[in-house]
Amino acid sequence: MMKLIMKLCLFCIDIVYPNRCPCCNCFIEWNRYICDECEAEVKVDADVFCRSCGKVKQECICAVLPAYDRAAVVSFYEGKSKTALISMKESSNRNFGRYAGENLGKWIEQQPDWMEADGIVAVPMHWTKKLLRGYNQADVIAKSISSVTGIPVEKKCIIKRYSRKAQHKLGAKERAENVYSFISGGRDLEGRKLILCDDIITTGSTMSRCAEILKECGADVVYAAAAATTRRKREG
Ligand SMILES: [Zn+2]
Ligand SMILES: [Zn+2]
């Protein structure tokens, strides 16, 4: 029923604000998230990625032991998918998050171990940023995975906070990165199997830190799902 209402709303919104492809900005049907041409370009074969860390196999970071157990990724953070992920942050076009979430959801449905997960957790955004943007892009992906798989979205497992601790020994860049940190939301996650999701895996450190927190709260298994991953070298 909720899905039907949601579809009806999207249809009505489309009459006033036509639906656009997040990659090339062309008009697309109200019930689509991306145009066919762009989809063919952004979608990467699942075998290209390391199933444990979510990086391209040649740049696997498993040796530095990410705290999450396995990973799933849809695209590379470059070209059209980079444009789409930036548009999700800057122009409120959430289609790429929905597209990526739906794709991840369909893939997860085929994996018996991932389907044992009993909750989906989005990497949080600081509340002031969420207030300004109106949404957290990781939430969009989480909800979309949930609507395909039926696995519920869990709230308040992790909190992103702003800390003012003295950091004068750090360089400017490190300082900017260290102003925000993740802490536990205080929930008991004993024995839980969770899917953690975010928009981009870069070094894996954000996903890793969040997975660590979930495990400190008792989670047994944490799978990481992301819309895109970065890579150093482009092929061809
Ligand atoms: Zn397009
Ligand atoms: Zn790996």
Plain-language structure description:
This protein is an alpha/beta fold. The chain has a single domain (50-229), classed as Rossmann fold. The chain has eight helices and six strands; from the N terminus they run ααβααβααβαββαβ. α8 links the parallel β5 and β6 (221-229). It is globular. Bound molecules: zinc ion (2 copies). One zinc ion binds at residues 21, 23-24, 26, 35, 37-38.
Summarize the structure.
It is built from eight helices and six strands. The protein has helices at 2-16, 36-42, 79-90, 95-109, 127-133, 137-149, 172-178, 205-216; strands at residues 70-76, 119-122, 158-162, 180-184, 193-201, 221-229.
List keywords for this structure.
single chain; 236 residues; alpha/beta; Rossmann fold; four-stranded parallel β-sheet; 6 strands; binds zinc ion
